[in-house]
Amino acid sequence: MNPKNVVLSINVVEQPLVAAVNRLSRELGVELKGLLLVDEHYAGHESRPKDTSGLFQEIICDFKDQDALQKALKPYMDTILVATVRYESAIQPFRKVIPFLPYVITPTETSLLWATEKPLMRARMAAYDRRLVPQHQYLEQQDLPKLDLLIDGFTYPMIVKPASLAEALLVTRCNDEQALRSCLDDTFTVIQGIYDREHRQNKPGLLIEEMMQGPMYSTDAYVMPDGEVFCLPLVEVITAHAVGLPGFYSYRHIIPTNLSQDEINEAFRVSTDSIRALNLRATTTHIELFRTPEGWKIIEVGARIGGYRNDLYREAYDVDHFYNDLCVRMGKKPIMPGEPVRHAAGINIYADEEGTITAIEGLEEAKKLASVVYLDQHANPGDAAVFADKGGQLIVDGILSNTDKEQLEKDVAKVRELVTIIIQKS
Length: 426
Fold this sequence. Notes:
Radius of gyration: 21 Å
Distance between the termini: 64 Å
CATH topology of the domain at 6-104: Rossmann fold
Strand content: 25-35%
Structural class: alpha+beta
């Protein structure tokens, strides 16, 4: 029999994955190869992360064509050791690939669907334990005339969020019926364009739910093929809404947190329940929670490594997140962290107002600060600056870390002071 020596990824390859494959290769004493299967509808995406090392062979294929998928994967049927996926937009393509990976440990197609479509996610968790989630209702554009009936018994404020988008895009708070109806009309006007931009191929829909009150946290948890769960340390997430800015995107990440061990244990218990409610296995999961007066509530669960979590866990705990992800997907237990080694922070920056970007200043000076690990620019002069709750993308993001918490806080504040996004109003 041919040796199992191929690591399969879907649509993207990030450099930490290349490093993780090389590490796994050394530890197994096997020369591993990479295979990147790319949906032809995504292949031309300008910012698609690609392997520059030559480790991953790239195959472009039409994922809507089962014959083409089978033909592409047939030569690797007996040699694929592990299959991984990183981006939310790649989960649905991964579901289409799974039937052609009969001898590879993977999550089930159905569990990945439940972990991608928020209404199905809410339904499964509510059936498992009603206390996990708030009251909620899914609707599509044709359901608007019966809105009163669909939300009968709900209380304001409410949150409107797309059923299949990440990064808090189009997530909006509504304090009364007029605001809710206006939000729904506006969101359905633009949502198809955002779905197209984010490579979502399903029909757009919205989730309405009663707003949860309390601070937000997240954990990435490893799920073994037999269901054993390992939760990584909690990350505190300060949303834009929490600091009085438009939208619910992650304004700031903080790790480690100041929570008591009892609070952490309860968050891990609820996180494990949410994983079991979705029947997930053999995957890393990204779980977002609110600590409400009624206890921990689940915002959502993703069957992937969370955004920025590789950097945050590496800086704060020296965790090799991509390596652990490969391990759990092949049935090998992850290497869990001990005590924190540094304080770490993640920051996301949008413009203070909407319009056309004329300049982004101060970035190079900010990069020189002692705590800065990296600062990346995601827009250029001439691009539109749009708030997250209207579907806009962030302009600058970064990771900072320091053994001195006070110095870290000073540098985080200094970055926000230095980085200036100059806007010409529309």
